[in-house]
Amino acid sequence: MSVIFAIDGPAAAGKGTLAKRLEAHFQLAKLDTGLLYRATGYKVLASGGDPEDPQAAEDAARALNPAELDNPELRTDEAAQAASKVSAVPGVRAALLDFQRDFAENPPALADGSPAKGAILDGRDIGTTVCPNAQVKLFVTASTEIRAKRRFKELQERGLEAIYARVLDDMKERDARDSSRSASPLAAATDALVLDTSDMDADQAFAAALDFIVAKNLF
Fold it and tell me: What is the C-alpha separation between 188 and 67, in angstroms, rounded?
């Protein structure tokens, strides 16, 4: 059976950075679940379809493969808008839930062709809904203000105009939406290690996660 790592948490808490380090350290196949809806929406657009067409959207979701998540076009506003549309389709949500669970149970080979020792998925509801049986569950969080500062700095470094107050407001709105939604709300699993990275750097967060994982004697 594949070892499964579930990493959840709000935006800019540091879960993506931590996931990458754990991926390399434990030789895991990593899935950034946030890209799935973007990839689905982009796939519909690329085929000349309408992201609001339920059948086209569901067909795209069911035909998705992990290699398509590496497309840089998924970072564009066009992909984001398409993602928002396809995410409203129940069939898409069901298909992508199947995709995530299949990835977790049958992780693809690593870039060098060697078999992965497990899978690591990061998102909002991995430990609670997608993979409640994951052997490692981490919930990475930080204060809203700290996360807004991190996202603001990231946007500036990418050469994009940003206003801190607006970034903070957007983050508060997203947190409220993610935490209060009826389907798979953002929440820490009861058996997850909660890592508050407000006063941690990447090395400290990795060390804390590593101690938690090593103690489980999974490898």
Answer: 29
pTM for the full model? 0.86
Cα 62 from Cα 92, distance rounded (Å): 8
CA angle 147, 177, 67 (to 5 degrees): 75
pLDDT in tens, the chain (219 residues): 679 999 999 888 999 999 999 999 999 999 988 899 899 999 999 999 999 999 999 999 999 988 899 999 998 778 877 887 888 788 998 999 999 999 999 999 998 999 999 999 998 889 999 999 999 999 999 999 999 999 899 888 888 888 999 989 988 987 887 788 777 788 899 999 999 999 999 999 999 999 999 999 988
Nearest CA to 210 among 167, 75, 219, 121? 219
- Asked if 39 contacts 168 with a C-beta cutoff of 8 angstroms, the reply is no
Q: How many CB atoms lie within 10 A of CB 79?
A: 23
How far, in Å, CA of 97 to CA of 101, rounded? 6
Token match 């996202």: residue?
Answer: 151
* All structural domains of the chain: 1-28+118-219 (3.40.50.300), 34-106 (no CATH)
Which of 123, 121, 35 is CA-nearest to residue 76?
Answer: 35
Distance from the Cα of residue 85 to its chain's centroid: 18
Nearest to 41 by CA among 13, 21, 69: 69
